[in-house]
Amino acid sequence: MGTTLIDDGAEGSAPGGVRQLVAFLVGGEEYAVEISRVQEIIRYTAPRPVSGARPGVQGLINLRGKLIPVVDLHEMLGAQGERGDAAKIVVVEIGDSTLGMEVDDVREVLTVDAAQCEAAPDGTTTGAGVIDAVAKLEGRLLVIIDLDRMFGDAAG
User: pTM of this prediction?
Assistant: First the structure.
Protein backbone atom coordinates (compact mmCIF):
# COMPACT_ATOMS: atom_id res chain seq x y z
CA MET A 1 0.00 0.00 0.00
CA GLY A 2 2.88 2.44 0.72
CA THR A 3 2.62 5.91 2.16
CA THR A 4 -0.45 8.02 1.35
CA LEU A 5 -2.02 11.16 2.69
CA ILE A 6 -5.35 10.69 4.42
CA ASP A 7 -8.44 12.84 4.84
CA ASP A 8 -8.55 15.24 7.78
CA GLY A 9 -11.65 13.42 9.05
CA ALA A 10 -9.85 10.10 9.49
CA GLU A 11 -9.32 8.95 13.05
CA GLY A 12 -7.18 6.36 14.81
CA SER A 13 -5.55 3.28 13.46
CA ALA A 14 -7.07 1.98 10.26
CA PRO A 15 -7.91 -1.70 9.80
CA GLY A 16 -5.70 -4.08 7.84
CA GLY A 17 -2.38 -3.53 9.60
CA VAL A 18 -1.87 0.13 8.80
CA ARG A 19 -1.08 3.01 11.14
CA GLN A 20 -2.30 6.57 10.74
CA LEU A 21 0.29 9.03 11.98
CA VAL A 22 1.02 12.72 12.40
CA ALA A 23 4.64 13.38 11.36
CA PHE A 24 6.63 16.33 12.71
CA LEU A 25 10.19 17.67 12.94
CA VAL A 26 12.27 18.02 16.10
CA GLY A 27 15.87 19.13 15.70
CA GLY A 28 15.88 18.30 12.00
CA GLU A 29 14.73 14.70 12.59
CA GLU A 30 11.31 13.28 11.71
CA TYR A 31 9.10 11.78 14.41
CA ALA A 32 5.45 10.73 14.51
CA VAL A 33 2.63 9.83 16.88
CA GLU A 34 -0.64 7.96 16.31
CA ILE A 35 -3.25 10.36 14.95
CA SER A 36 -5.84 8.99 17.39
CA ARG A 37 -3.81 10.54 20.24
CA VAL A 38 -3.65 14.03 18.69
CA GLN A 39 -6.35 16.40 19.89
CA GLU A 40 -5.20 19.36 17.80
CA ILE A 41 -2.20 21.26 16.45
CA ILE A 42 -1.77 24.94 17.27
CA ARG A 43 0.73 27.67 16.44
CA TYR A 44 3.49 27.93 19.06
CA THR A 45 2.61 30.18 21.97
CA ALA A 46 5.21 30.76 24.67
CA PRO A 47 4.12 28.88 27.79
CA ARG A 48 4.06 30.60 31.17
CA PRO A 49 6.93 29.10 33.19
CA VAL A 50 5.97 27.33 36.41
CA SER A 51 8.49 26.97 39.22
CA GLY A 52 9.11 23.40 40.32
CA ALA A 53 7.98 21.92 37.00
CA ARG A 54 9.30 18.52 35.92
CA PRO A 55 12.37 18.45 33.66
CA GLY A 56 11.36 19.15 30.06
CA VAL A 57 8.19 21.05 31.00
CA GLN A 58 8.37 24.58 29.61
CA GLY A 59 5.26 25.79 31.40
CA LEU A 60 1.52 26.14 30.87
CA ILE A 61 -0.72 27.52 28.15
CA ASN A 62 -4.40 28.41 28.39
CA LEU A 63 -6.19 26.54 25.61
CA ARG A 64 -9.83 27.68 25.53
CA GLY A 65 -10.00 27.86 29.32
CA LYS A 66 -8.04 24.65 30.02
CA LEU A 67 -4.49 24.75 31.39
CA ILE A 68 -2.20 22.52 29.32
CA PRO A 69 1.43 21.74 30.27
CA VAL A 70 3.84 22.11 27.33
CA VAL A 71 6.93 19.91 27.08
CA ASP A 72 10.09 20.58 25.09
CA LEU A 73 10.65 17.58 22.82
CA HIS A 74 14.14 18.89 22.00
CA GLU A 75 15.14 18.32 25.61
CA MET A 76 13.25 15.04 26.00
CA LEU A 77 14.69 13.54 22.80
CA GLY A 78 18.17 15.03 23.14
CA ALA A 79 17.72 16.98 19.89
CA GLN A 80 19.59 20.13 18.90
CA GLY A 81 18.17 23.25 17.34
CA GLU A 82 16.32 26.43 18.15
CA ARG A 83 12.65 27.30 17.84
CA GLY A 84 11.82 28.75 14.44
CA ASP A 85 8.86 30.63 13.03
CA ALA A 86 7.17 27.37 11.97
CA ALA A 87 7.09 25.94 15.53
CA LYS A 88 3.85 24.29 16.62
CA ILE A 89 2.37 22.70 19.70
CA VAL A 90 0.91 19.26 19.13
CA VAL A 91 -1.78 18.73 21.79
CA VAL A 92 -2.04 15.04 22.71
CA GLU A 93 -4.03 12.90 25.10
CA ILE A 94 -2.19 10.68 27.57
CA GLY A 95 -4.70 8.69 29.61
CA ASP A 96 -6.99 11.24 31.25
CA SER A 97 -4.46 14.05 30.79
CA THR A 98 -3.80 16.46 27.96
CA LEU A 99 -0.41 17.99 27.21
CA GLY A 100 1.29 19.94 24.48
CA MET A 101 4.52 18.96 22.74
CA GLU A 102 6.62 21.71 21.18
CA VAL A 103 7.81 20.66 17.71
CA ASP A 104 9.71 22.54 15.01
CA ASP A 105 7.04 21.95 12.38
CA VAL A 106 4.27 19.51 11.48
CA ARG A 107 5.03 17.75 8.20
CA GLU A 108 2.06 15.59 7.25
CA VAL A 109 -0.63 13.13 8.18
CA LEU A 110 0.09 9.76 6.62
CA THR A 111 -0.82 6.10 6.57
CA VAL A 112 1.98 3.56 7.00
CA ASP A 113 1.70 -0.20 6.43
CA ALA A 114 2.64 -2.36 9.41
CA ALA A 115 5.15 -4.12 7.12
CA GLN A 116 7.04 -0.81 6.81
CA CYS A 117 7.54 -0.62 10.60
CA GLU A 118 10.22 -2.31 12.68
CA ALA A 119 11.12 -2.21 16.36
CA ALA A 120 14.05 0.08 17.16
CA PRO A 121 17.32 -1.89 17.04
CA ASP A 122 19.01 -2.75 20.35
CA GLY A 123 21.20 0.05 21.62
CA THR A 124 19.21 2.88 20.05
CA THR A 125 16.95 3.61 23.01
CA THR A 126 17.62 4.43 26.62
CA GLY A 127 15.60 4.22 29.81
CA ALA A 128 11.96 3.36 29.16
CA GLY A 129 12.58 3.22 25.40
CA VAL A 130 10.17 5.84 24.10
CA ILE A 131 10.50 4.63 20.49
CA ASP A 132 7.54 2.46 19.52
CA ALA A 133 8.81 1.66 16.02
CA VAL A 134 10.70 3.03 13.04
CA ALA A 135 8.86 3.30 9.73
CA LYS A 136 10.98 2.78 6.64
CA LEU A 137 9.57 5.11 4.01
CA GLU A 138 10.86 6.08 0.58
CA GLY A 139 14.26 7.61 1.29
CA ARG A 140 13.62 8.38 4.96
CA LEU A 141 13.11 6.91 8.41
CA LEU A 142 10.21 8.01 10.60
CA VAL A 143 10.60 7.42 14.34
CA ILE A 144 7.23 6.63 15.96
CA ILE A 145 7.04 7.74 19.60
CA ASP A 146 5.21 5.73 22.25
CA LEU A 147 3.45 8.51 24.17
CA ASP A 148 2.52 6.25 27.08
CA ARG A 149 6.15 5.32 27.73
CA MET A 150 7.35 8.89 27.21
CA PHE A 151 4.76 10.61 29.39
CA GLY A 152 2.95 7.80 31.25
CA ASP A 153 4.29 8.82 34.66
CA ALA A 154 3.14 12.41 34.07
CA ALA A 155 -0.42 11.41 33.15
CA GLY A 156 -3.23 11.34 35.62
Answer: 0.82
